[in-house]
Amino acid sequence: MTSELIHRTQTSQFTHRNSDSPPDSNCPPKSTNRIGYMLRHRLPFLLLGVAIAAAFFHLLPSPSTAAAPHVSLLETNLALPTRRVLMEDHTEKKGRVPIGVKGKRQKRIVVTGGAGFVGSHLVDRLMERGDSVIVVDNFFTGRKENVLHHMGNPNFELIRHDVVEPILLEVDQIYHLACPASPVHYKFNPVKTIKTNVVGTLNMLGLAKRVGARFLLTSTSEVYGDPLQHPQAETYWGNVNPIGVRSCYDEGKRTAETLAMDYHRGAGIEVRIARIFNTYGPRMCIDDGRVVSNFVAQALRKEPLTVYGDGKQTRSFQYVSDLKV
Ligand SMILES: O=c1ccn([C@@H]2O[C@H](COP(=O)(O)OP(=O)(O)O[C@H]3OC[C@@H](O)[C@H](O)[C@H]3O)[C@@H](O)[C@H]2O)c(=O)[nH]1
Fold first, then answer.
1. Active-site residue identified among 249, 263, 280, 308
2. Which pTM does this prediction carry?
3. 110 CB-side CA count, 13 A
4. Which terminus of the chain is more solvent-facing, meaning fewer CB atoms within 10 Å of its CB: N or C?
5. Which domains does the chain have, with CATH numbers?
6. Whose CA is closest to 121, among 284, 257, 318?
7. Which ipTM did the prediction report?
8. Cβ(280) to ligand 1 under 6 A?
Protein backbone atom coordinates (compact mmCIF):
# COMPACT_ATOMS: atom_id res chain seq x y z
CA MET A 1 0.00 0.00 0.00
CA THR A 2 2.71 2.45 1.02
CA SER A 3 4.85 1.69 -2.02
CA GLU A 4 1.83 2.15 -4.30
CA LEU A 5 1.17 5.61 -2.90
CA ILE A 6 4.77 6.61 -3.33
CA HIS A 7 4.64 5.41 -6.90
CA ARG A 8 1.54 7.49 -7.67
CA THR A 9 3.15 10.61 -6.23
CA GLN A 10 6.22 10.14 -8.32
CA THR A 11 4.07 9.75 -11.44
CA SER A 12 2.23 12.96 -10.69
CA GLN A 13 5.44 14.92 -10.11
CA PHE A 14 6.78 13.64 -13.36
CA THR A 15 3.66 14.77 -15.21
CA HIS A 16 3.95 18.30 -13.78
CA ARG A 17 7.48 18.59 -14.89
CA ASN A 18 6.71 17.39 -18.41
CA SER A 19 5.81 20.58 -20.33
CA ASP A 20 4.84 18.69 -23.47
CA SER A 21 2.15 16.69 -21.93
CA PRO A 22 -1.46 17.77 -22.64
CA PRO A 23 -3.08 19.92 -19.95
CA ASP A 24 -5.42 18.11 -17.67
CA SER A 25 -7.87 19.52 -15.16
CA ASN A 26 -5.49 19.19 -12.20
CA CYS A 27 -2.52 20.66 -13.88
CA PRO A 28 -2.02 24.32 -14.93
CA PRO A 29 -0.75 24.95 -18.45
CA LYS A 30 2.43 26.79 -19.40
CA SER A 31 3.21 30.24 -17.91
CA THR A 32 1.88 32.19 -20.96
CA ASN A 33 -1.66 31.11 -20.19
CA ARG A 34 -1.29 31.07 -16.42
CA ILE A 35 -3.17 34.31 -15.66
CA GLY A 36 -6.06 33.40 -17.95
CA TYR A 37 -6.13 29.95 -16.45
CA MET A 38 -6.19 31.40 -12.91
CA LEU A 39 -9.06 33.73 -13.81
CA ARG A 40 -11.09 30.95 -15.41
CA HIS A 41 -10.46 28.10 -12.97
CA ARG A 42 -9.26 29.46 -9.63
CA LEU A 43 -11.04 32.83 -9.27
CA PRO A 44 -14.54 31.38 -8.69
CA PHE A 45 -13.17 29.27 -5.84
CA LEU A 46 -11.31 32.24 -4.43
CA LEU A 47 -14.46 34.36 -4.47
CA LEU A 48 -16.46 31.54 -2.89
CA GLY A 49 -13.89 31.28 -0.10
CA VAL A 50 -14.03 35.03 0.55
CA ALA A 51 -17.85 34.89 0.67
CA ILE A 52 -17.82 32.00 3.19
CA ALA A 53 -15.28 33.78 5.39
CA ALA A 54 -17.32 36.99 5.34
CA ALA A 55 -20.49 35.10 6.26
CA PHE A 56 -18.68 33.31 9.09
CA PHE A 57 -17.35 36.51 10.69
CA HIS A 58 -20.69 38.21 10.24
CA LEU A 59 -22.58 35.44 12.06
CA LEU A 60 -20.04 35.06 14.88
CA PRO A 61 -21.53 36.61 18.07
CA SER A 62 -19.92 39.69 19.52
CA PRO A 63 -17.76 39.17 22.64
CA SER A 64 -20.47 40.45 24.98
CA THR A 65 -23.14 37.94 23.81
CA ALA A 66 -20.65 35.07 23.62
CA ALA A 67 -19.66 35.46 27.26
CA ALA A 68 -22.83 33.95 28.76
CA PRO A 69 -22.70 30.56 26.99
CA HIS A 70 -19.02 30.35 27.85
CA VAL A 71 -19.74 30.76 31.57
CA SER A 72 -22.68 28.42 31.24
CA LEU A 73 -20.44 25.75 29.90
CA LEU A 74 -18.06 26.25 32.76
CA GLU A 75 -20.77 26.14 35.38
CA THR A 76 -21.51 22.47 34.71
CA ASN A 77 -18.02 21.67 35.95
CA LEU A 78 -17.99 24.09 38.83
CA ALA A 79 -19.31 24.02 42.32
CA LEU A 80 -22.75 25.20 43.33
CA PRO A 81 -22.06 28.89 44.09
CA THR A 82 -21.28 29.60 40.42
CA ARG A 83 -24.53 28.00 39.35
CA ARG A 84 -26.36 30.16 41.87
CA VAL A 85 -24.84 33.27 40.38
CA LEU A 86 -25.91 32.20 36.92
CA MET A 87 -29.44 31.47 38.06
CA GLU A 88 -29.66 34.97 39.46
CA ASP A 89 -28.49 36.36 36.15
CA HIS A 90 -31.35 34.63 34.40
CA THR A 91 -34.15 35.26 36.86
CA GLU A 92 -33.48 38.66 38.31
CA LYS A 93 -31.76 40.30 35.34
CA LYS A 94 -29.68 42.38 37.75
CA GLY A 95 -26.27 41.23 36.66
CA ARG A 96 -24.00 38.99 38.65
CA VAL A 97 -24.33 38.69 42.39
CA PRO A 98 -21.06 38.01 44.20
CA ILE A 99 -20.70 34.41 45.29
CA GLY A 100 -20.05 35.46 48.87
CA VAL A 101 -23.44 37.15 49.24
CA LYS A 102 -25.51 34.48 50.89
CA GLY A 103 -29.16 34.44 51.73
CA LYS A 104 -29.98 36.87 48.94
CA ARG A 105 -31.33 34.31 46.57
CA GLN A 106 -34.28 32.00 47.09
CA LYS A 107 -33.12 28.45 47.66
CA ARG A 108 -34.61 25.77 45.42
CA ILE A 109 -35.44 22.80 47.61
CA VAL A 110 -36.97 19.42 46.91
CA VAL A 111 -38.67 17.58 49.75
CA THR A 112 -39.34 13.93 49.00
CA GLY A 113 -42.25 12.69 51.05
CA GLY A 114 -43.20 16.34 51.51
CA ALA A 115 -46.93 15.56 51.61
CA GLY A 116 -46.47 13.26 54.60
CA PHE A 117 -46.84 13.94 58.31
CA VAL A 118 -43.30 15.12 59.08
CA GLY A 119 -42.56 16.24 55.52
CA SER A 120 -45.47 18.66 55.31
CA HIS A 121 -44.38 20.41 58.53
CA LEU A 122 -40.92 20.79 57.09
CA VAL A 123 -42.42 22.22 53.89
CA ASP A 124 -44.34 24.80 55.97
CA ARG A 125 -41.10 25.89 57.59
CA LEU A 126 -39.26 26.19 54.27
CA MET A 127 -42.13 28.11 52.70
CA GLU A 128 -42.20 30.48 55.68
CA ARG A 129 -38.51 31.07 55.11
CA GLY A 130 -39.27 32.11 51.53
CA ASP A 131 -37.64 29.17 49.78
CA SER A 132 -38.87 27.72 46.52
CA VAL A 133 -40.13 24.24 47.38
CA ILE A 134 -40.86 21.23 45.21
CA VAL A 135 -42.67 18.39 46.93
CA VAL A 136 -42.18 14.93 45.46
CA ASP A 137 -44.59 12.34 46.85
CA ASN A 138 -46.25 9.17 45.64
CA PHE A 139 -49.09 9.62 48.18
CA PHE A 140 -48.72 6.12 49.63
CA THR A 141 -48.96 7.57 53.14
CA GLY A 142 -48.74 11.25 52.24
CA ARG A 143 -51.88 13.30 51.53
CA LYS A 144 -52.50 16.29 49.30
CA GLU A 145 -54.51 17.90 52.12
CA ASN A 146 -51.28 18.28 54.11
CA VAL A 147 -49.91 20.75 51.58
CA LEU A 148 -53.16 22.08 50.12
CA HIS A 149 -52.65 25.47 51.78
CA HIS A 150 -49.58 26.08 49.58
CA MET A 151 -51.35 25.41 46.30
CA GLY A 152 -51.38 28.50 44.12
CA ASN A 153 -48.25 29.89 45.76
CA PRO A 154 -45.70 30.45 42.98
CA ASN A 155 -42.95 29.23 45.32
CA PHE A 156 -44.64 25.85 45.66
CA GLU A 157 -44.82 22.86 43.34
CA LEU A 158 -46.25 19.39 43.94
CA ILE A 159 -45.16 16.41 41.85
CA ARG A 160 -46.67 12.94 42.11
CA HIS A 161 -43.61 10.78 41.75
CA ASP A 162 -42.16 7.65 43.31
CA VAL A 163 -38.49 8.12 44.22
CA VAL A 164 -37.82 4.53 43.17
CA GLU A 165 -37.79 6.06 39.67
CA PRO A 166 -35.12 8.67 38.88
CA ILE A 167 -36.14 12.30 38.60
CA LEU A 168 -34.26 15.27 37.14
CA LEU A 169 -34.63 18.60 38.96
CA GLU A 170 -32.45 21.66 39.37
CA VAL A 171 -32.26 22.27 43.11
CA ASP A 172 -29.86 23.53 45.77
CA GLN A 173 -30.96 21.22 48.59
CA ILE A 174 -32.64 17.84 48.87
CA TYR A 175 -34.56 16.78 51.97
CA HIS A 176 -35.13 13.07 51.49
CA LEU A 177 -38.00 11.87 53.66
CA ALA A 178 -39.87 9.56 51.29
CA CYS A 179 -40.63 6.24 52.97
CA PRO A 180 -43.48 4.89 55.05
CA ALA A 181 -42.37 5.25 58.67
CA SER A 182 -45.02 3.54 60.74
CA PRO A 183 -44.43 -0.20 61.30
CA VAL A 184 -47.90 -1.12 60.00
CA HIS A 185 -47.26 0.81 56.80
CA TYR A 186 -43.67 -0.25 56.10
CA LYS A 187 -44.52 -3.90 56.81
CA PHE A 188 -47.44 -3.71 54.36
CA ASN A 189 -45.10 -4.16 51.37
CA PRO A 190 -41.64 -4.86 52.80
CA VAL A 191 -39.94 -5.29 49.42
CA LYS A 192 -41.26 -1.92 48.31
CA THR A 193 -40.08 -0.43 51.61
CA ILE A 194 -36.49 -1.58 51.23
CA LYS A 195 -36.54 -0.63 47.55
CA THR A 196 -37.64 2.87 48.50
CA ASN A 197 -34.85 3.14 51.04
CA VAL A 198 -32.12 1.73 48.82
CA VAL A 199 -33.06 2.59 45.22
CA GLY A 200 -34.95 5.75 46.18
CA THR A 201 -32.03 7.05 48.24
CA LEU A 202 -29.59 6.12 45.49
CA ASN A 203 -31.64 8.10 42.97
CA MET A 204 -31.82 11.16 45.17
CA LEU A 205 -28.11 11.00 45.96
CA GLY A 206 -27.43 10.70 42.24
CA LEU A 207 -29.49 13.85 41.75
CA ALA A 208 -27.54 15.59 44.54
CA LYS A 209 -24.29 14.64 42.83
CA ARG A 210 -25.46 15.83 39.41
CA VAL A 211 -26.64 19.25 40.58
CA GLY A 212 -24.22 19.68 43.49
CA ALA A 213 -27.06 19.91 46.03
CA ARG A 214 -26.77 19.48 49.77
CA PHE A 215 -28.55 16.33 50.93
CA LEU A 216 -30.43 15.49 54.11
CA LEU A 217 -31.43 11.90 54.81
CA THR A 218 -34.12 11.37 57.39
CA SER A 219 -33.11 8.16 59.06
CA THR A 220 -34.62 6.57 62.12
CA SER A 221 -33.99 5.53 65.68
CA GLU A 222 -34.69 2.05 64.32
CA VAL A 223 -31.11 1.88 62.99
CA TYR A 224 -30.24 0.97 66.59
CA GLY A 225 -32.49 -2.10 66.36
CA ASP A 226 -33.04 -3.57 69.81
CA PRO A 227 -30.36 -1.43 71.41
CA LEU A 228 -28.16 -2.76 74.16
CA GLN A 229 -27.19 0.77 75.15
CA HIS A 230 -29.54 3.36 76.67
CA PRO A 231 -29.84 6.12 75.74
CA GLN A 232 -28.27 5.58 72.32
CA ALA A 233 -25.32 7.79 71.49
CA GLU A 234 -24.69 8.56 67.82
CA THR A 235 -21.53 6.50 68.05
CA TYR A 236 -23.51 3.39 68.96
CA TRP A 237 -23.80 1.01 65.98
CA GLY A 238 -26.93 -0.79 67.07
CA ASN A 239 -28.18 -4.30 67.50
CA VAL A 240 -30.17 -5.08 64.40
CA ASN A 241 -31.76 -8.29 63.18
CA PRO A 242 -31.11 -8.45 59.42
CA ILE A 243 -33.86 -11.01 58.78
CA GLY A 244 -36.62 -9.74 61.05
CA VAL A 245 -39.97 -8.26 60.00
CA ARG A 246 -38.63 -4.75 60.64
CA SER A 247 -35.49 -5.29 58.55
CA CYS A 248 -37.02 -3.81 55.39
CA TYR A 249 -37.13 -0.53 57.27
CA ASP A 250 -34.25 -0.60 59.75
CA GLU A 251 -31.77 -2.31 57.44
CA GLY A 252 -33.10 -0.21 54.57
CA LYS A 253 -32.38 2.97 56.49
CA ARG A 254 -28.98 1.65 57.54
CA THR A 255 -28.15 1.06 53.87
CA ALA A 256 -29.47 4.53 53.03
CA GLU A 257 -27.09 5.96 55.63
CA THR A 258 -24.24 3.95 54.10
CA LEU A 259 -25.06 5.29 50.64
CA ALA A 260 -25.19 8.85 51.94
CA MET A 261 -21.77 8.53 53.56
CA ASP A 262 -20.27 6.83 50.50
CA TYR A 263 -21.54 9.63 48.25
CA HIS A 264 -20.09 12.09 50.73
CA ARG A 265 -16.70 10.38 50.89
CA GLY A 266 -16.57 9.35 47.24
CA ALA A 267 -18.27 12.20 45.43
CA GLY A 268 -17.91 15.05 47.91
CA ILE A 269 -21.66 15.45 48.39
CA GLU A 270 -22.51 17.48 51.46
CA VAL A 271 -24.79 15.23 53.50
CA ARG A 272 -26.67 15.34 56.77
CA ILE A 273 -28.32 12.40 58.49
CA ALA A 274 -31.08 12.87 61.05
CA ARG A 275 -32.11 9.81 63.08
CA ILE A 276 -35.68 10.65 63.96
CA PHE A 277 -37.31 9.08 66.98
CA ASN A 278 -41.00 8.42 67.52
CA THR A 279 -42.74 11.65 66.46
CA TYR A 280 -46.35 12.74 66.94
CA GLY A 281 -48.49 15.79 66.29
CA PRO A 282 -51.01 17.38 63.91
CA ARG A 283 -51.53 15.73 60.49
CA MET A 284 -50.65 12.33 61.86
CA CYS A 285 -53.14 9.89 60.35
CA ILE A 286 -55.65 8.43 62.76
CA ASP A 287 -54.74 5.05 61.27
CA ASP A 288 -50.99 5.76 61.39
CA GLY A 289 -50.57 2.66 63.55
CA ARG A 290 -47.93 4.12 65.86
CA VAL A 291 -48.56 4.05 69.56
CA VAL A 292 -49.48 7.72 70.16
CA SER A 293 -52.16 7.92 67.45
CA ASN A 294 -53.46 4.46 68.42
CA PHE A 295 -53.82 5.42 72.07
CA VAL A 296 -55.38 8.82 71.26
CA ALA A 297 -57.84 7.27 68.81
CA GLN A 298 -58.77 4.53 71.29
CA ALA A 299 -59.16 7.04 74.10
CA LEU A 300 -61.41 9.22 71.94
CA ARG A 301 -63.53 6.18 71.13
CA LYS A 302 -63.51 5.25 74.82
CA GLU A 303 -61.94 1.92 73.97
CA PRO A 304 -59.28 0.14 76.02
CA LEU A 305 -55.70 0.96 75.01
CA THR A 306 -53.88 -1.92 73.32
CA VAL A 307 -50.46 -2.51 74.81
CA TYR A 308 -48.34 -4.87 72.74
CA GLY A 309 -46.02 -7.39 74.43
CA ASP A 310 -45.26 -7.02 78.11
CA GLY A 311 -45.53 -3.22 77.98
CA LYS A 312 -42.00 -2.79 79.31
CA GLN A 313 -40.62 -1.39 76.02
CA THR A 314 -39.41 2.21 76.10
CA ARG A 315 -39.39 4.92 73.46
CA SER A 316 -38.28 8.53 73.12
CA PHE A 317 -41.15 10.68 71.85
CA GLN A 318 -41.04 14.14 70.35
CA TYR A 319 -43.63 16.60 69.19
CA VAL A 320 -43.31 17.39 65.50
CA SER A 321 -42.61 21.12 65.95
CA ASP A 322 -39.57 20.19 68.02
CA LEU A 323 -38.24 18.14 65.13
CA LYS A 324 -38.22 20.68 62.30
CA VAL A 325 -35.38 23.15 62.34
O1 LIG B 1 -51.18 0.27 69.70
C2 LIG B 1 -49.97 0.15 69.99
C3 LIG B 1 -48.95 0.54 69.12
C4 LIG B 1 -47.64 0.35 69.51
N5 LIG B 1 -47.34 -0.18 70.71
C6 LIG B 1 -45.96 -0.31 71.14
O7 LIG B 1 -45.45 0.98 71.30
C8 LIG B 1 -44.08 1.00 70.94
C9 LIG B 1 -43.90 2.07 69.89
O10 LIG B 1 -44.34 1.56 68.66
P11 LIG B 1 -44.69 2.46 67.42
O12 LIG B 1 -45.61 1.65 66.55
O13 LIG B 1 -45.20 3.77 67.85
O14 LIG B 1 -43.36 2.64 66.59
P15 LIG B 1 -41.80 2.45 66.98
O16 LIG B 1 -41.43 3.35 68.13
O17 LIG B 1 -41.53 1.03 67.18
O18 LIG B 1 -41.10 2.97 65.70
C19 LIG B 1 -41.38 4.26 65.25
O20 LIG B 1 -40.61 5.18 65.95
C21 LIG B 1 -39.38 5.51 65.47
C22 LIG B 1 -39.48 5.97 64.06
O23 LIG B 1 -38.22 6.35 63.55
C24 LIG B 1 -40.05 4.90 63.21
O25 LIG B 1 -40.25 5.39 61.91
C26 LIG B 1 -41.31 4.33 63.74
O27 LIG B 1 -41.48 3.08 63.19
C28 LIG B 1 -43.73 -0.39 70.44
O29 LIG B 1 -43.10 -1.11 71.46
C30 LIG B 1 -45.06 -1.01 70.14
O31 LIG B 1 -45.08 -2.41 70.31
C32 LIG B 1 -48.34 -0.56 71.55
O33 LIG B 1 -48.10 -1.04 72.63
N34 LIG B 1 -49.64 -0.38 71.16
1. 249
2. 0.71
3. 25
4. N
5. 108-323 (3.40.50.720)
6. 284
7. 0.95
8. no
